[in-house]
Design goal:
The complex is a heterotetramer, with 2 copies of chain A (321 residues) and 2 copies of chain B (318 residues). Chain A contains 12 helices and 7 strands. In chain A, the strands form 2 sheets. In chain A, strands 1-2-3-7-6 form a 5-stranded parallel β-sheet, sandwiched between helices. In chain A, strands 4-5 form a two-stranded antiparallel ribbon. The longest helix of chain A has 27 residues. The N and C termini of chain A lie far apart (46 Å). In chain A, 60% of the residues are buried. Chain B has 318 residues and is of the alpha/beta class. Chain B has 15 helices and 14 strands. The chains are: A alpha/beta (321), B alpha/beta (318). At the B-C interface, helix 7 and helix 14 of B face loops of C. The structure holds thiamine diphosphate (TPP) (2 copies) and magnesium ion (MG) (2 copies). One thiamine diphosphate sits at the interface of chains C and B.
Chain lengths: 321, 318, 321, 318
C-alpha cells in the first residue's frame, strides 16, 4: 500500500516524539532527578512506530525492558509516563513501576517488563484472548534478540504455531544483549530460521527504515486479522546508548559499529526522505519539533509538579478487589 | 448429605463457575474430559508440555479480561514455571499500580507418601508464601476444596491452590447447594482445650486421628486447619494458643523455612500469645531432606501420628 | 559400515535383555512388590541399543523418565538396577531413587530423570566437559517428543550449536506425551526442523529398526568425536504400555495405532531378520533367551534378597563430603 | 591490613581457586574480563541469556568431574532457572544415593534500595532454604565473601551465594594471606548483653550502626551475622538468646516465611532458649509487598535503623 502524506507525517511525528521524550528524560536522569534502571529506545524508534501504526486500541501489545517507544506509539499519555518514570503518584502505576514497568491497559498496552523473554508467554495469552473474542483483533509482542535465547521464546513460537494465534512477534534485533553479540549467543545465523521451523510466516526488514517496517507490518497484521496464524517480523536495528543509562559496565561494542548505525538514524533518515519528497519542509519540521518539545516539556513539568506517593501508599494495590 | 470425592468436588467448582462465566478458559497438559465435553475445545485447552508458557499465558488472558484455570499437575512441574509465577503473576497487579485485574486460578498437587521420590514429592507452598501478591489455598476436604475454589473463581487475583496428591480420591460430604468459603478464615476442625495443633494439608487428617486417639486418654487437642495460607487467619491460631497455652504445628513440607516456621514465628511474636505459652512450641514437619523413594526411608522422612503424639506429649511436658 | 555377525548378535542381545528385564519387572509390579512410578521402555528398545552401541564407558549419557533401556545398554548392572527399583539398599541409589532415578556415574550413565526436558541442559554440561577434556569423548541425551515442547530443549540446541558441543541429541519420538499426540502439541511438522534452524546436522530414522539406528548413530558419533559439533537423531517409535504402569488415567491412544506398531516390534523384527540371514537359529535364540532370563531372574532374586534401607539411612547422602 | 571491595574480594577467591584447579569453569551471561584474560575462553564462558541452561549445564559438568561457578546475576533471573536449581542441583546428590559429587558455586545478587522495582528487588533465600540439598551463603563483608567463597570452591556440593546488590562496592579489610571461613559458623559481629539481634545480608550493617547508636544510651546489642543460612549455626543464636533473653531478627526479605521466621521458630522451639526469653521475639523485615519503585514507598517497604531501634525498644519492654 502506498502511504498517504498524512500517514508519512504521522510516522515521522511518532518517531520524533519518542526521540524527544527520551532525550528530555535523559537530561533529567543525568542531572539526578530520576533513579533506577532506564533503558533507552533511541535508535530503534522506527520499529514501534511502523508496527503500532497498524494496531487499534483493541489490539494488545506486550513490551520489554526498553519500552518507552512502544508506550508512546500505542498512544500512552506522556505526562503519566513521565510521572511514572519520576516515581510520582500521578504516574501510570502510581510510582510503583518506574521506567521498566509502564503499562496502560486501557489502550491495550499490557506492560513493559524487566525479565528477558517473559513478555512472550504473556503475549500468547493476549492473543488467545483475541482469538476467543473473534473480532479480528490481534496481539503484538516486542522483544530483543537476547530474548530469543530464553526457552520462553521457543514455547511461545510453538504455541502460536499450534493454535494459529493472532500474534505478531516483533523481534527488535539490535545485534547485542548488553555486551554480548548475537553471534556469540545465538546459534541460528538468522533468527527467523526458528519461527520458520514452526511454519510461522516471517520477514526481516531494516528496522531503521520506518516505511519498510510499516509495510511489512501492514501485511502481517492483515494476515493476523484474517486468522491466518502468527507472523514473525524481525527488524534489524541498533541501540545508541549503553544497555541502561546508569550501567556500571563499560559499553564494549565496537565504536565504529555504533558510528555506522548512527549514520542510519531512523529519524534523520526519514526526515531527509520526507524533505526530498517535499512532504515536509524545514519550517514544518521545526514547527512539529517545537510542538513535540512543548508536549514533552509539559510532561516533564507535570511529573515534576506531581507529588511523590506517600510512604504508606506502598500498601495499596497488592491485590485487586 | 451426599458424599463425593475431593477431585469431584473440585471439578464441580470449576463446572459451576465455567457455566456462569463464558470468559473462562482452562489450560493443562492433559485433557479433563468432562470439561472438554461441556465447554468445548476453545475454552478447555490442552497445552504443550510448557508450564511456564501457560502460566504466563494465563496472565495475558487475565490482562485481556479472561479468567483462567491453569492446572500445573504436580508442584514439581511448577518449578519450570516460576518465572511467570513469581516475577509476573505475583507482582503484575502491584507493579502496574492496580490498573488491571488478574483473575487466575493455578492448581497443583503437593505431598509425598506414594513413592514418588525426591522430584515428585514436594510441598513448596512456603516458597510461594514468601513472594507477596498471590493468594494461597490448601484445601484438605471435598467440602473445603469446592468452597475454596468457588471463592477463587470469583476472586480477581492470582490464586494458587495446593492440593495433596493423596487427597484427590478421598470422600466427604458436599452440599448440593452452592456455597463459598471465604479466604482467611481458618477452620477449627476439632475443638479442644489442652494443646493447639495447627495442621496443614494431609496432616489435618493425621492430627484429627491423633486427637481422637488422645481424647481417649483425656488429652484434648484443638485442631486448626488454616485452609488458606495467604491470607492467613492468624487470630484464630492466636486465640486458640491463648486458651491452650501450647502449640504444635504439623506440616509435611520440609521444616526449614516452611509454613510451620511462619506459624510459630507469628504466634510467638504476638505478645499476648507469647505471654500465655506454657511451653516451647514444637514443629512436626517433613525432614530437611529430599524425599527418598524406598518406603521405610520415605515413611521416616514424613510426619505421622506417632510423631504428632510425641510432640503433643512434649508440649504437655511429658 | 557393515555389521559383523557378532555385532548383530550383540544388538539383538541388548534389545532382548531390555525387553525381558522390563517384562519381569512388570510382573512384580502388578503383583504389588514394586511401588512408585515405573515407565516402560518396551517397544523402543532399538533406540538405546543402536545408539549406545557406539559409546565408550568414557562417553556420558543422560536419560529421562523412561530410562531402564538406556541403563542396560550402557552396561549397568541389572542386579543393582532391579534392587533400586525395589527400593533396596543394594540398589544403585541405595533405594533413594527408584525406577525414575537410576544412575551409574562409573559407566557414564548420568541418570534418569523425572522432569520432562530437564536432562537437556544437564547433558550440555556433560558435553562441555567432554569438549574441555579434548579426548574425543562425547555425550548423548535421550528425550521424548514431549521434551521438545519445553524451553529447555531450545536452550540446549542453541548452546550446542553455538559452542559446537560434542552432544548427540536422541529424540525418541513415540508420537505421544501421555495422552497428547505430537500433532496437538508441537507446531513444527517435523521435529528436526528445529535443530535444523540451529544448523545442527540431523537425521530421522525408523526407531524400531535397530540397524538403521545403529548406522545413523555410527556416523553421528564419528562426527562428534572429530569435533564437528552436535548431531540430532530423531528415532520414530511407539510406546506399548500406558504412560506409566500405575497411571490412573486411561490410555486414550487409538487402539489400532498400537496394534500396528506392535507388528513392528523392534525385537521380533530383528529376530526375524537374523533368522533369515542365518545369523541366529531358533536354538541359539532360545539359548540367548534362557541366559537373559537367568540373568534377569538373578537380578530379581538379588533384589528380593536385599534388605530395605534402614529408616535412618534417609539421613545419609544429602551432601557429599 | 589492606582494604579492598567486596566484589574484588569475591573475584580473588575465584582467581585463587581457578589457579589451583584447572578443572574449573565459569559461566555467566556477561564476561568477567579479569577471569577471561587469565583463564581463557575455554574456561571463562559467556553464555546465552538462558539461565536455566547454564544452571543445568553446571550440574552436567559437575557430574563429569568439573567444578563450575555460575553467576546468575540478580536473584530475580534465578526464577527462570529454578527447575534446574530445585529439582536437580538440590536433589541430585541424594536421589542418586551419593554416588557422585556436584561441586558448583551459584552466585546471585539480592536486595532492594536502588529503585529496581518489584522484579529486580528480591531476596528469595528462604525459598532456597526450604529445598534441602543446597548450602546457602549470605556474605556481608569483603572479608566474609572471600573466605566463604573460598570454602565454597572446595566444597563438593552445590552452594548458592546470595550477595546484596548494594554491598558489591563496599570496602573492608581482607588479608593477603589465604584463609577460609567454615560453613555453619555464625559471626558475632558485635558482642552485647541486652538484646540479641540476628541480622541478615545488608541489614548486618544497619544493625551494627544501631548497636553503636544505642551503646551511647547504655543499651548493649549483640549482633549476630549467621553468614551461612544452610547450614545454620543455631547454637550461637540460642546461646546468645539464653544470655540476653531478647531476640530481634532483621532481614530485608519479605517477612512471611522468610529466614527470620525460621530463626524465631528454631529459637522459640528450643526449650532452654524459650525458658530464658523475657519478651516476645520481634521481626524487622521487608514488608509483605512487592518492592515499589518510587523512593518514598521503597524506603517504607524495607527495614531501616529506625525500625530496628523500635523493635529493640519493643523487646526491652518500652
Ligand atoms: C531472565 C533475565 N536474564 C538476564 C537479564 C538481564 N538483562 C536485562 S536486558 C538483557 C539483554 C537483553 O538483550 P535483548 O533482548 O537483545 O534486548 P536489548 O537490551 O538489546 O534491547 C539482559 C541480559 C534479565 N533482565 N532477565
Ligand atoms: C516439567 C514436567 N511437566 C510435566 C511432567 C509430567 N509428564 C511426565 S512424562 C510426560 C510426557 C512426556 O512425553 P515424552 O517426552 O514424549 O516422553 P514419553 O513419555 O512419550 O516417552 C509428562 C507430561 C513432567 N514430568 N515434567
Ligand atoms: Mg538486543
Ligand atoms: Mg513421547
Amino acid at each position: 500500500m502506498n502511504l498517504s502524506k498524512k500517514q508519512k507525517i504521522d510516522l515521522f511525528n511518532t518517531m520524533l516524539t519518542i526521540r524527544r521524550f527520551e532525550e528530555r528524560l535523559f537530561d533529567e536522569f543525568y542531572a539526578g532527578s530520576i533513579t533506577g534502571f532506564v533503558h533507552s529506545y533511541i535508535g530503534e524508534e522506527a520499529i514501534a512506530t511502523g508496527v503500532i501504526a497498524h494496531l487499534k486500541k483493541e489490539d494488545r501489545i506486550v513490551s520489554h525492558h526498553r519500552g518507552h517507544g512502544h508506550c508512546i506509539a500505542k498512544g500512552a499519555d506522556m505526562k503519566r509516563m513521565m510521572a511514572e518514570i519520576y516515581g510520582r503518584k500521578t504516574g501510570y502505576c502510581k510510582g510503583k513501576g518506574g521506567s521498566m514497568h509502564i503499562a496502560d491497559f486501557s489502550i491495550g498496552m499490557l506492560g513493559a517488563d524487566g525479565i528477558v523473554g517473559a513478555g512472550l508467554p504473556i503475549a500468547t495469552g493476549a492473543s488467545i484472548a483475541a482469538q476467543l473474542e473473534g473480532k479480528g483483533n490481534v496481539a503484538a509482542v516486542f522483544f530483543g534478540d537476547g530474548a530469543c535465547q530464553e526457552g520462553e521464546f521457543h514455547e511461545a513460537l510453538n504455541l502460536a504455531s499450534l493454535w494459529k494465534l493472532p500474534l505478531l512477534f516483533v523481534c527488535e534485533n539490535n545485534g547485542w544483549g548488553v555486551n554480548t553479540s548475537i553471534g556469540e549467543s545465538f546459534g541460528a545465523k538468522e533468527i527467523t530460521r526458528v519461527p520458520d521451523a514452526f511454519h510461522i510466516a516471517h520477514k526481516t526488514v531494516d528496522g531503521n527504515d520506518v516505511e519498510r517496517v510499516y509495510q511489512a507490518a501492514e501485511k502481517a497484521v492483515a494476515r493476523l486479522r484474517k486468522g491466518s496464524g502468527p507472523f514473525f517480523l524481525e527488524c534489524k536495528t541498533y541501540r545508541w546508548h549503553k544497555h541502561f543509562l546508569s550501567d556500571a559496565l563499560p559499553d564494549l561494542r565496537p565504536k565504529n559499529e555504533l558510528e555506522a548505525w548512527k549514520k542510519k538514524c531512523p529519524v534523520k533518515a526519514y526526515e531527509t526522505k520526507l524533505l526530498k519528497q517535499g512532504i515536509l519542509t524545514p519550517k514544518k519540521i521545526a514547527a512539529m519539533n517545537a510542538k513535540i518539545m512543548d508536549a514533552v516539556e509539559e510532561a516533564n513539568q507535570y511529573a515534576l509538579a506531581s507529588p511523590f506517593p506517600k510512604p504508606q501508599d506502598a500498601l495499596q494495590d497488592i491485590y485487586s478487589k | 448429605m451426599r458424599e463425593i470425592t475431593y477431585d469431584q468436588a473440585a471439578l464441580e467448582a470449576i463446572q459451576e463457575e465455567f457455566r456462569r462465566d463464558p470468559r473462562t478458559v482452562h489450560m493443562a497438559t492433559d485433557l479433563p474430559p468432562e470439561l472438554r465435553q461441556e465447554f468445548g475445545s476453545d475454552r478447555i485447552r490442552v497445552t504443550p508440555i510448557a508450564e511456564n508458557n501457560f502460566v504466563g499465558a494465563s496472565i495475558g488472558l487475565a490482562g485481556s479480561g479472561f479468567r483462567t484455570v491453569a492446572n500445573i499437575r504436580m508442584a514439581t512441574f511448577g518449578f519450570v514455571a516460576l518465572d511467570q509465577m513469581m516475577n509476573h503473576a505475583a507482582k503484575i497487579t502491584y507493579m502496574f499500580g492496580g490498573q488491571a485485574k488478574f483473575p487466575i486460578l493455578y492448581r497443583m498437587t503437593v505431598g509425598g507418601g506414594f513413592q514418588g521420590a525426591a522430584e515428585h514429592s514436594i510441598s513448596p507452598y512456603s516458597m510461594y508464601m514468601n513472594v507477596p501478591g498471590l493468594k494461597i489455598l490448601l484445601p484438605t476436604t471435598p467440602y473445603d476444596v469446592k468452597g475454596l475454589l468457588k471463592t477463587a473463581l470469583r476472586d480477581n487475583n492470582p490464586v494458587v491452590s495446593f492440593e495433596h496428591f493423596l487427597l484427590g480420591g478421598t470422600i466427604g460430604e458436599v452440599p448440593e447447594k452452592e456455597y463459598f468459603i471465604p479466604f482467611g478464615k481458618a477452620d477449627i476442625k476439632r475443638k479442644g482445650t489442652d494443646v493447639t495443633v495447627v495442621a496443614l494439608a494431609k496432616m489435618v487428617h493425621e492430627a484429627l486421628a491423633v486427637a481422637e486417639e488422645l481424647a481417649g486418654k483425656g488429652i484434648s487437642l484443638e485442631v486448626i486447619d488454616p485452609r488458606t495460607l495467604i491470607p492467613f487467619d492468624k487470630q484464630t491460631v492466636i486465640r486458640s494458643v491463648k486458651k491452650t497455652g501450647r502449640l504444635v504445628v504439623v506440616d509435611e513440607a520440609c521444616q526449614t523455612c516452611g509454613a510451620a516456621a511462619e506459624i510459630i514465628a507469628f504466634t510467638t511474636s504476638d505478645k499476648s500469645a507469647f505471654g500465655k505459652l506454657k511451653s516451647a512450641p514444637v514443629r512436626v514437619c517433613g525432614m530437611d531432606i529430599p524425599i527418598p523413594f524406598s518406603p521405610p526411608m520415605e515413611k521416616f522422612a514424613l510426619p505421622d501420628k506417632k510423631k504428632i503424639i510425641r510432640a503433643v506429649m512434649n508440649v504437655l511436658g511429658d
